[in-house]
Amino acid sequence: MRRALSVAAYRTRVSLARQWGGYLALVVLIGLLGGISIGAFAAAQSTESSLTQLARNENVADIFILDGYFNPSVGLESGYNPGLLRTISRLPHVRDVHSEIGLSMGPVTRAGVITQTDLGLSSYGSVDGFGFSQDRVTISKGRMANPDDAHEFVTDAATVKELGLHLNEMVNFGWVTNAQSLNLQGNATVPKAQRFRAKLVGIGTSAFMDLFSDQSSAASSQTLIFTPALTRRLRECCANDMISGIQLNGGSRFDATVETELRKVLPKGVPPTVIKASVKEATAERTLRPDAIALDVFGGIAALALLLIVGQIVVRRASSRRRDLEVLRALGATHAMIAADDLLGTLGAILLGALVAATAAVGLSPLAPLGPVRPYLPTALHFDWPILGAGVILIALALATMAVTAALRWSPYRDSTRLNRLRPASLGWLTRNPFTSALPISAVTGIRYALDPGTGHNKVPVRSAMLGTALAMIVITGNLTFGASLASLVSHPALFGWAWNYELDGGGGLGDVPQPEAAKLLNADPLVKAWSGVYFSTLRINGVSVPVMGASPNAPVGPPILTGHGFDARNEVVLGAATLSQLHESIGGVVSVTSGNGAMEHLRIVGTATLPSIGVVGSSHLEMGTGALLSYRLIPPSARNLFDSPRPGPNAILVRMKSTAGATEGLRSLRSIARTLRLDVSGGSVLGVQRPAEILNYSTLGTTPDLLGGALAAGAVIGLAMTLVTLVRRRRRDLALLKTLGFTKRQLATTIAWQATVDVGLGCVVGVPLGVVAGRYLWALFARGIYAVPSPVVPVTTVLIVSVMALALANLAAAVPARIAARTPIALLLRAE
Q1: Model confidence over 298-343: pLDDT tens digits?
Q2: Is 205 helix (H, G, I), strand (E, B) or coil?
Q3: What single string gives the DSSP state of each residue in 331-372?
């Protein structure tokens, strides 16, 4: 072996000086395709976990809770409660607590006039660093406000546009006390002592909380953010609510434990509104999964292209040295010497190319992650060592195995007499077939060339052409099917839980819609087909806090059922698929439900449903896979009617309109009912489709999967074109023989056209159905992953158009080499004969 390696090293040094271009091409190809593949896999992981990266950058809390609320009717005289903050900070597992308070303030005119509209701009003041050191606001323009300067503030781009502000502008503000806000009606003049000026020094957002919010929660996002220096002056007099971010020692592991303790210490009258960072991150992962899947597929296609292209080069290199190896054998070279010959150079080029691929992947890393989080993360090189290491090892091992196999395959010591015994497959049926016998000789010859791979030195990659076409069509058709299904999901609200037209909202999921008056008006409306009243709350199911929607058994309007059936009695419950999995239960199982007053009941699980993203605004509420649908009587009356309204009723009414009702007429009719019921007094309104965070972000991410799918399709098409060109080039000797027998240039072109059409046509016949099946299967997996109704759509017309275009491309790809073959002198190709 030492002697063999010595000879191989000498041969490598000699051949390197003469064939360095071939080795360099090998390194460049491996580096380019391998870098794209490794970079795509790394980008997929980075994309899916991008919100987690942002959470670390912003120092996000584990739990957010509404722990202060101004409501004199239940004895809450201020939203700010320092005693409660001290109590929370002493709870088990709590590491740190930072808070912000909602301030009753807004922009004023020079005369000091403030309006109710201005007060609705959600002005928040940091108490102790919330937004500054914890849950940091991400600034896109300007800078963060100085926490010690009461005359600086930041806001988001939407508010800047709405108010017509610009960076570094001085804005007049005014505030009202809690006592004054009770009597405030319309425009009011703020006393001079309650006015001040502040400079807009930065434009940004609390990206973690805002990026992946459901549409129903959009109104709860903060807009004007003021410093602790100002908050210290106003927190005792002008705080209408308080939100705290709680960081835990054990992270999200203790979410449930701490949430239970928080509910015990909350003042009576404060609604238990809790948001968990882990739930936000899970929603983001589901939202970003399509891009991650597309990147993984893209990386897989690039890896496959790497193996095919570089593998062909390695095999061709080994086969082209067959005669040199026979000379070495004649000179007395051993089997080991011949097998090792040229392997050192090839293996060295493969290893160097794998390292170049890792370097290229790192160079591409600043482009990741994809999606809405990307603008809020710093642009920098990322070293994902597990993926880089695995990529280098797999590329080197796979290509080295191919190189060794090729070296052994083309060794002169290998018995190759069996190859000479191979005979072409019998294709006599072509001439006996009634269909082909009526075709011109050029067509029959083209069909024969398309099906006959040949043997030995005359072997042609016919199967590669068919396989390449099938793979290309699987990729393209699967991507089209997935894309059409995604578009259908976004455009059909029933698929993501909104199986009605409108919602009469009592006010943020907490207010009441007066039941008798509403029932009378809805039943009398000729455009209303059916309606159901629902209540929102949070109950403990098997000890786990679950957002619930309470309704009547057999309600005429409700979420779409995925498995099983809807609940028909008080002792039955329908769960979201994620909640069912979280509880480790199955349909037919029994769960215990504990209400706020401590009463426990046992319910049988009768089905799963895709739940709408509605409920208490700013709190943990229903999502597509999270929550429960059960009898509203299981929710205590004190929780159903939190504010002890004189006109109690459901928190919302879900309304399905008749198919003959136009969107404008139906909305106008329900708004008239809302005005009659005076829902605006408690902040209620008529809501159209409320989309979950996943659906909202698919509209912004939708072009990325299309671009990646187009890149995959382009790669598949290029690979197919290269295969067809190789196929025609390998047939040049046969084409020369046809010219000798009298074929004209036109007949040669027709022969090649038939050859390409048959190869690609057979690939389409196999690839298109498999692509549809693959696309439907992937969509079903994806839909179940986000807990939507799995309803795949096949774009038949588009698929047919793509198939026709593939046939046209086959003829276009074969046209150029066909012209070259037709013009090549016969003697040049047949000289070797």
Answers
A1: 788 788 778 877 776 776 666 656 566 666 666 666 665 666 666 7
A2: strand
A3: TT--HHHHHHTTHHHHHHHHHHHHHHHHHHHHHHGGGPPPST
